[in-house]
Task: inverse folding
């Protein structure tokens, strides 16, 4: 499917969104007014600030206009001028600047509160005062002119005027005190800077000579020293661990000797001789245990195991003391090694600290040399400019006051009316976007087809009462279908046209479509078209009756293809052979309730409703709950006897789902024509495929 075939769906959505926005215009307007009122009262509750304005005219002299204006603007914004003005206006004692300084941060507010509780008074810092001063100062150059505007804001209009005039006066005093020929001053400054740079370079040279480790080779040596320091720390940790382990083993052996029970742990003693003696000491005990039942008290070998055990215990004790002496020697050696490592660490750390200090001093000297060099270049440039100006006898920029500040009549901030207008416009746009987004996500406001059934308006009347109440003309097709049916359809179409019913729902009663059903929807659409009304018939049943009535043959795209985006309006809309009625077939795909419930179907029906005077829908029973809520009038057609109970469920279902009028049209079944039979066979074959 090409983009050209899908483009009408976008046009449908635009028209639907525009209609939804038009219907929600009251809400959007009220919301904008509410937000504007809140913004107006919120801005009106703020403390207004006033601005005093002084206008200066800068005569550039022999310098370019842009350079001269930029220089004067920077002078007016300079910190030196700000300090003079702050002292002249005594801003530190001004309540406005004191509140700004104390409320600048939570810590400042707490400090000020504590001072008030303790009865201490102190002025806010100069930095806070200058910060508030620069926030209230506004200096700007008027584009394409030589005018500079000085603006000073304050909550007191009189103080705003005083501040602006004070800034202008101090600016002229500063220019008056400045030397007219800065060349001698610059000469002395340049000479002093050159001496300082020479001293700094000499200090750097001496430092590099005295500290050989400050260069590239020194950096390599420093890296090796740091690596050596890391290795010594690791070695010290290992030595201390081994010494602690040896001391623990000595303590365990000493405890075992004092108690007479040495621990049977190879990890503590670690001697193979000790392990051998321990195993031999256990053998006599076993032999004695085996010979105890057979020995006699006077046996000469009875004391031999005891003597052997005592001898082994003595040898074990001797071996344990030897092991303990060896561990003590190991501990002493480890202590000596630990002391050596600590001395090396102390010496190496001192060397690294000295090298770091020397490097830091070298960096400081180099930074000072670079800074003095840049300042020297600046002074040299100014000196050359002064000499050039003196050589051509040029005059510097000369300012003069055009108008001094006067007491303002309106607040500079907040601008209540303009800001309120901007807020209202933003609220209007946001509300419109919200309505559009809601329409896009929900498939439309009124155009969205919901499955929910509205509550019935009341008890349902009988069929005969409904006929008398809803249709004042004869709705019944008599036996002579050709004349009576045409007369009833004409009267129904006349009522629909007079009441301007745009969306007409046509369905059949239960059991009335078992046989051949007449093309009542086609007849109604033709009657409306003959009355010079733009009418379109949409067939959602797909049984071929409406196709045969409109003389539409062949497998052509229809409503379901349009919903799926596989066809455009030009491809699905056909023309009736006998009238000016337009016709939209069901389509190649089956028409389901799920497809009709989507936003595309709602948008298509909404667009057709705006395009045509009347949209006639020929639908089945399962689509009543979906289409009846948006219908302007419904027509129930049946071929049953008068008072047949099978008509009542359809009428009850429509009344429960819609508030619009319901017309009941009765007829007698007509004979099925060969054209209708062929059309029905074609439609069934298409569905089966």
Result:
């Amino acid at each position: 499917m090409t983009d050209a075939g899908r483009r009408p769906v976008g046009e449908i959505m635009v028209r639907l969104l525009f209609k939804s926005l038009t219907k929600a215009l009251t809400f959007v307007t009220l919301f904008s007014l509410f937000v504007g009122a809140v913004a107006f009262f919120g801005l009106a509750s703020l403390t207004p600030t006033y601005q005093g304005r002084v206008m200066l005219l800068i005569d550039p002299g022999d310098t370019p206009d842009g350079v001269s204006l930029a220089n004067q603007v920077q002078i007016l914004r300079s910190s030196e001028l700000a300090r003079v003005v702050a002292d002249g206006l005594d801003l530190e004692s001004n309540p406005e600047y004191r509140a700004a300084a104390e409320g600048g941060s939570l810590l400042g507010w707490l400090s000020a509160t504590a001072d008030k509780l303790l009865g201490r008074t102190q002025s806010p810092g100069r930095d806070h005062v200058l910060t508030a001063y620069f926030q209230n100062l506004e200096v700007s150059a008027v584009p394409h002119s030589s005018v500079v505007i000085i603006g000073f804001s304050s909550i007191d209009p009189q103080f705003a005027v005083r501040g602006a005039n004070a800034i202008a006066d101090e600016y002229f005093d500063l220019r008056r005190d400045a030397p007219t020929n800065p060349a001698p001053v610059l000469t002395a400054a340049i000479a002093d800077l050159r001496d300082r740079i020479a001293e700094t370079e000499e200090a750097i040279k001496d430092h590099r000579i005295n500290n050989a480790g400050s260069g590239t080779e020194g950096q390599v040596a420093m890296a090796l020293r740091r690596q050596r320091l890391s290795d010594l720390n690791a070695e010290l940790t290992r030595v201390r661990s081994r010494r602690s382990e040896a001391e623990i083993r000595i303590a365990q052996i000493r405890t075992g000797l004092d108690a007479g029970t040495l621990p049977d742990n190879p990890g503590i003693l670690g001697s193979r001789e000790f392990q051998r003696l321990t195993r031999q000491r256990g053998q006599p005990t076993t032999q004695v245990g085996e010979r105890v039942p057979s020995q006699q008290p006077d046996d000469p070998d009875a004391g031999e195991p005891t003597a052997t055990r005592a001898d082994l215990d003595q040898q074990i004790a001797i071996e344990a003391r030897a092991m303990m002496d060896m561990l003590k020697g190991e501990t002493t050696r480890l202590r000596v090694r630990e002391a050596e490592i600590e001395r090396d660490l102390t010496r190496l750390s001192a060397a690294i600290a000295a090298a770091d200090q020397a490097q830091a001093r070298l960096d400081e000297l180099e930074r000072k040399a670079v800074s003095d060099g840049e300042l020297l270049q600046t002074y040299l440039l100014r000196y050359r400019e002064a000499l050039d100006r003196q050589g051509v006898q040029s005059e510097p920029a000369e300012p003069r006051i055009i108008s001094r500040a006067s007491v303002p009549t309106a607040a500079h901030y907040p601008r209540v009316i303009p800001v309120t207008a901007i807020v209202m416009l933003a609220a209007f746009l946001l509300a419109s976007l919200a309505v559009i987004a809601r329409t896009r996500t929900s498939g439309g406001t009124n155009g969205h087809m919901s499955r929910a059934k509205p509550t019935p308006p009341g008890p349902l009347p009988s069929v005969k009462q409904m006929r008398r109440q809803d249709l004042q003309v004869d709705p019944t097709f008599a036996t002579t279908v050709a004349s009576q049916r045409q007369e009833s359809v004409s009267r129904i179409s006349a009522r629909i046209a007079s009441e301007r019913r745009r969306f007409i729902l046509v369905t059949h009663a239960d059991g009335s479509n078992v046989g051949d059903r007449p093309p009542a929807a086609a007849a109604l659409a033709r009657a409306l078209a003959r009355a010079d009304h733009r009418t379109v018939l949409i067939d959602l049943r797909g049984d071929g009756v409406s196709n045969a009535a409109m003389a539409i043959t062949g497998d052509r795209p229809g409503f379901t293809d349009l919903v799926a985006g596989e066809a455009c309006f030009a491809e699905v809309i056909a023309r009736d052979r006998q009238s000016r009625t337009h016709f939209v077939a069901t389509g190649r795909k089956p028409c389901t309730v799920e497809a009709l419930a989507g936003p595309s179907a709602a948008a298509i029906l909404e667009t057709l409703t705006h395009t045509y005077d009347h949209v006639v829908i020929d639908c089945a029973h399962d689509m009543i709950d979906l289409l009846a809520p948006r219908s302007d009038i419904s027509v129930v057609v049946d071929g049953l006897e008068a008072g047949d109970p099978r008509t009542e469920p359809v009428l009850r279902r429509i009344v429960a789902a819609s508030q619009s009028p319901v017309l009941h049209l009765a007829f007698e079944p007509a004979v099925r024509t060969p054209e209708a039979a062929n059309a029905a066979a074609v439609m069934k074959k298409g569905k089966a495929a």
User: Anything to note?
Assistant: The longest strand covers residues 50-59.
